Amino acid sequence: MADPDTEYLQSIPWCAKLLADPNFVVVPTSTRNFKKSTEDALFAETLKTDDTIRAWIALFRQPAGGSTKIEEVHTIVSLGYRLNGYPHICHGGIVATIMDEVMSTLLSVNKSRNDVSGGAVTASLNVSFLKPVRTPQVVLVTATFGEVKGRKLYLESTVRDNGGVVLAKAEALFMRINEPGEKL
Fold first, then answer.
1. Tell me: the pLDDT tens digits for 45-98?
2. Quick one: DSSP state of residue 62?
3. pLDDT, tens digit, for every residue of 90-142?
4. Which pTM value belongs to this model?
5. Cα torsion for 26, 31, 34, 40, to the nearest 10°?
6. Which of 30, 46, 84, 143 has the most CB within a 10 Å radius?
7. How many other CB atoms sit within 10 Å of the CB of residue 184?
8. Segment 73-82, tens digit of pLDDT
9. Torsion-angle region of 157 (φ positive above 0: left; ψ -120 to 50: alpha; else: beta)
10. What share of the chain is helix, strand, coil (3-state, %, to 5)?
11. CA–CA gap between residue 114 and residue 154 (Å, rounded)
């Protein structure tokens, strides 16, 4: 039996098509799981309800040509009305938070494949809101690698509606943190 997120998203035709694509691998999103330490409580509890973010599934294409680095992660996210800042419009801070989280997922996937060493934290995030992110709806959030310079990891993200229209985009700088308490 499929998990509730998969079941829900498979009921939406464009999501089902993406999830059925054999070139994609579904990525477990650990931030959606409760942890006793309270780590990830924002996405595991606060934003994990039928009226906030009902479903969240991340996936990536297998890299070609023997490369192990994943250059891009797509995440299907259902947005409910309790994320609104204005009637039927998702709060911009939530949109920014979701893009930041999807970029972090890209880093996590690569860390698990030994292509990004150590942890990384968001050092800067620049968001451009191009069109209202309406609720309720299901969106596709994509994160891609840009440049890597030493400890600096540059990433980009977009939020698209079911028609592929870009609603928001972001550029971010993540800094690798290899030791607890290490300064940026």
1. 999 999 999 999 999 998 877 678 899 999 999 999 999 999 999 999 999 999
2. P
3. 999 999 999 999 999 999 888 877 666 568 999 999 999 999 999 999 999 99
4. 0.92
5. 180
6. 143
7. 10
8. 999 999 999 9
9. beta
10. 25, 40, 35
11. 18
